[in-house]
Every structure is written in structure tokens, then in C-alpha cells.
Design a protein that fits this description.
heterodimer, A: alpha/beta, seven-stranded mixed sheet, 12 helices, 14 strands, globular, disordered C terminus, B: alpha/beta, two-stranded antiparallel ribbon, binds thiamine diphosphate
Amino acid sequence: MTKATYLEAIRQAQHEEMSRDARVFIMGEDIICNVFGTTTGFVDAFGVERVRDTPISENGFIGAAAGASMVGMRPIVDATIASFLYPAMDQIMSIIAKSRYIYGGQASLPLVIRTCLFYGNSNAAQHSDRPYSMFMNVPGLKIMVPSNAYDMKGMLKAAIRDDDPVLCFEDSTCWTSKSDMPDDPDFIIPLGKGEIKREGTDISVIAVAGAVPLALKAAEVLAKEGISIEVVDPRSLVPLDKPLILKSVRKTGRAITVDPAHQTCSAASEISALIVEQAFDALRGPVLRVATADTHLPFSPAIEKALYPTVDRIVAAARTLVGAAQPVSA
Amino acid sequence: MTDLPNDRSLEKYRRMLRIRHFEDRAEAIHAAGEIPGALHTYAGQEASGVGACIALRTDDYMVGTHRSHGHPIAKGAKLRPLMAELLGKATGICKGKGGSMHLSDFSIGSLGETSIVGSGIPVAAGAALGSKLQGNDRVALCFFGDGATNEGAFHEGMNLAAVWKLPAIFVCENNGYAVSTPAHSAVPVKDIAERAKAYAMPAIIVDGQDVDAVEAAVTEAVERARTGGGPTLVETKTYRYADHAVNMGRILLDRGDEVDEWRKRDPLTLYRARLTEAGVAAATLDTMEQEVADEVADALQFARDSAYPEQAEAFDDVFVDRLPIPDYLTA
Ligand SMILES: Cc1ncc(C[n+]2csc(CCOP(=O)(O)OP(=O)(O)O)c2C)c(N)n1
């Protein structure tokens, strides 16, 4: 066991899977020069045919990943920053999500689109998006949102081996976090398996991506006040580990969903609806959402950070939930 | 044309006949309410599809468009599953999930007839990339219309194929219109082929009513692709007789006697004359036509006899594993 960062976990997962399976290749903008460190040593190991720099043409190369996967390859596309998926919406929505279905199961698209949630750094609205919940609204795409290095490695390896298209959202606020890494080359965390990151009895906090470390910090604070928080990390949004979430809520009777996405139609909204529909009888109060306000992200650091979920906002929501029965508006 | 009446030339005629008859039947039963949804016919363009596909091997890839009946038939698809798909039956080539705009038969290398204009172009580039990475010599051919060449996907796909020297053939079937919009009012260059210059890609303009000419042009492009010479843009000058889609007549501008002028160069009439001239007996061609009519009738009977999909099948093939079926459908 050696420690690795979240970014190093991505590198390891890709390296191991490309070594294991010659059909796996990676492409994207400026991969060879290795901007973020997720392809260190790849050209030497795999050559420029399998480590491909693309022109700036997201719709083109994400569509090409679809075509290559249909004929038997297993592409990994590095689409760097999540906002850059928008120019490729056509291929992601119309081709990648729908081809298996529309052609009656004739098409297979085992591809991974990696992209990073790059927010909280004064990069302004066009570079600060967390768009996974938009993609949850389209059947046919698996969506993973790992919150630590261990999960990242195990899930990315699973995603590369998966026969369905997977969108891998990498939270940049987790980039430097470290985990112990198993040496087993077949270490896999299947998509659709969430994890209880901390056990608790009073409130289930279901947190997504970079909100998980925040929820864990909030749980520390609240523990000192005698409030016991259970932190649930679904790890993937599609498929979603519904039994894990519902079991936790049935145990605690209270739920807060924490999500860096914009609140309206967020993953938090979907998880809240699930809880209300399927565990209403166990609830001792409203399900609260702690998400990002429905506005664009400003450049100015003076007003950006407070818009996202914070430890303080989670703590405040928890206090409300155990202290008073009245509903709180977000 | 010394060796004209061989199996290959007869096969080209047969495939063009199949498309024409298949669509004639489809249109008739659509009018009678037997086919749901939209129907975009290919009549007038048969030489373009058949000439291009006959230049391919069965294991080569082909990506098509919303005008989706001609391309798979040209590539050699069986008619029964295609007709069943039009009727939305479980035996349809796409199990009743795709319908008229998506008749794709993967068994003959068709990787999708896509109805989002231009969206097949990057896919074809990607299939060609797959061939290159696998070190095989399969090529990928993509059909699209003149209208599609104004989409970003066209330019991105062409650029990618050009810089990576992919074994791709881009076939623009220029039928003069995108729905109601004449190409000259939406495309600033005289010929679509000119657009290849921006990608340093060779381009060929060919008479899209002449199946032999299309075959020759695409064969040249296929050879270049197969031997590492990279992609080619082929522009077939062709025409669709019908409205953009059946029942869309009211939006079409008055084409005057243009349709009649083009009918004088109907690809089937032209080719029948050429075969006859080269010595094929009229009776042989008549027999072939009867066989094709029978094939289409058989496909329709098969389609009619087939069952509709079960409701639960709406949850198949979203992912590899079937999705759970919601209560409101099972209760
Ligand atoms: C992205 C997109 N925009 C608009 C449409 C609606 N539409 C369907 S076919 C068509 C015209 C396509 O023209 P062209 O590419 O020349 O092909 P043709 O129909 O002439 O074969 C349009 C605008 C669509 N299907 N997809």
C-alpha cells in the first residue's frame, strides 16, 4: 500500500487499464504535454497512436470516441473541464446516450469521458460548472462523481471496463487529497455502489463529489454539539445506490442532501425526491438541500465561495433539522 | 462498358430496384396509416447510395442519415427486418426502437442512420480511427446531405479525419435542398466539394444519377483510404423527387418543372437502358423486377405477421443491463 493523490489515482487507473487491454486508448486536447499530470509517461509506454492529441473540436473527437467504440475500441476521452462538454452536447446526447437504444441493442459504446469539475477558483461562469445533474436527465449515460483518491481509482478502472458509456466527473477540490492505494491490479469499485463514509444516528447527510469532505468536516463540528451525522457518499449518480441511501435515512429519520450543482434539478433534488417518495414514513422532518444557488458563478472571490455548499451551511441545516420542526427555505 | 452485363452490374440494378420498390410500398402503407411517424424517401437518389456502397466491402463501415431506407439497402441489408422496423415491430432491425429514420443494420457494417443532421460525420471519423488503431484495412463511409455541411459536426469530423489521415470517405448527396432551403441560399460555395480545400482533402464531384460513375468515384476514394492516403470528399449531384418528408408538401416551394426534368435522368431508367444496350435481355430485367417486388411483398408480409414489442422492452438497451420497470407499467 502506498499513498496516492486523486490525480495520481487517475493516472494509475488509466495506465493499468491501458496496459491490460490494447483496445483502450486516450485522446483529448494537450494530453501528450500532460497538463494535469494524469498521463505522465504515457507516450513512452503506449506511443502516440494510443495517446492522442486532438484538435480543439469537442463535438468532433467525442463523436469520434463514439465511432471508435462502436467498432471495438475502448476510448477514454479527456475533456479537461466540464464546461467543454457543452460544445459536444450533440454527440453526447444524440449519439452516445442513444445509439444502443435506437438501434435496438446493435450498438455498443464502451467509452469513458473524463472531465473535471473546476470550480471555486475565480474562473468565472464559463469555467466553473458542475453539470452532472444535467446529464442525469438523459437515460443511457452512467455518471460517476468520486470524492477521494481510493474511490477514483477503483471506479475509473471499473468505468474503463464497463460496456456502457460513462461520464467521469473529477472534482478539482479533491485533486490533492490522498488515499492508501491497493496494489491489486484488479482492484475495482463497481459503479452503483455507494459508501457510508461516517456512521451516525441523528441525520443522514447524502453528499456528492467535493461535498463529501465538507460533510465530513461538518460532522466533526456537529459531533461536539452531540449531533451524530451519518455521511453517505453515493459515489455514482447513475446508477444510484438507492438502497444504501434509503437504509441510512430509515435509520436516522432525517436527511440533508449536499451537492455542488445548482439547486434546481440538482442531484440533491433527485435524491430528496427519492427519499420523500420511498422513506416518507421514516422522516422526522423535511429533507433539506444544501446546493449552489441558482445563479452563475461570479469571478470576484469576494462573492463566489459563499454560493457553494460550505461546512457552515451544512452545520446550520443540521441544527435546524434537529432543533426545530419548522421547514427552512434554502 | 465492355464487361457491363456481369453479376456486379446486375446487383447494382437489383439494389436500386429494391430501394425504389421498398419505398413505394412504404409510402403507400404510410398513407394508409400502417407506418407511424415521419417518412423521408430517397427516390431519385438510388444511384448515389448504391454506387457508393457497392464500392465497399461488407465489413467496411457506413454511417447514414434520416433519409435512412436507401443506405442500408444499398449496403446489402435484408429487407424483412427493415420493413418490420418501419411498422414498429419487435422483429424490426432496431427492435422497433428506431423506425423510419434509423434503419441501421450493424451486420452489414451500417453503424447508424442518425436523424440529427450532421451527427454521423464524427462517428464515421471515429470508426475509421478504430480501423487505423486496430491495424485493419476497413474504411468508413459517411453519407450526408448538402444541408449537413453547414453543421459544425461536418467541419470537426472532416478536420479530424484529415489531420489524422483516417480511412474515411465523406459522401455528400447534394440533392439541392435542405427541407425547403435551396443549397445555393445556404451554402456560399458553388460546389460542396470546394469545402474540402479547407482540410487539404481531395474531392471528387460526380453525376449522382449514374451508378457506375458514383461507383468509380467512390472506388478511387476507397482505394486511397485503404492504402493510407487518408479521407476524400465525394459530392454526388443528385435529386429527391418527393417532398422532404411525406405529408410535408405545404412547406415546399414550387419547384416548377424541375422534378420532371430530373425524372428524365432517373437513375433506374438510365441504368436499365445501359444494361439493355450492353445486351441484357429485357426479360432478364423484368424478371429481376418481379423478384424484387416479391421480396418487398414478402418483407411486408413478414412485418405484418410480426408482433409488436412488449411494453417492458422500452427498458431494454438503455444500458447493457435492463432498467427496472416502473410500477405504473406493471401494476
Ligand atoms: C441538427 C438538426 N437540425 C435540424 C433538423 C431538421 N431537419 C431534418 S432533415 C433537414 C434537412 C437536411 O438537409 P440535407 O442535409 O441536405 O439532407 P436531405 O434531407 O436533403 O437528404 C433538417 C433541417 C435535424 N433533424 N437535425
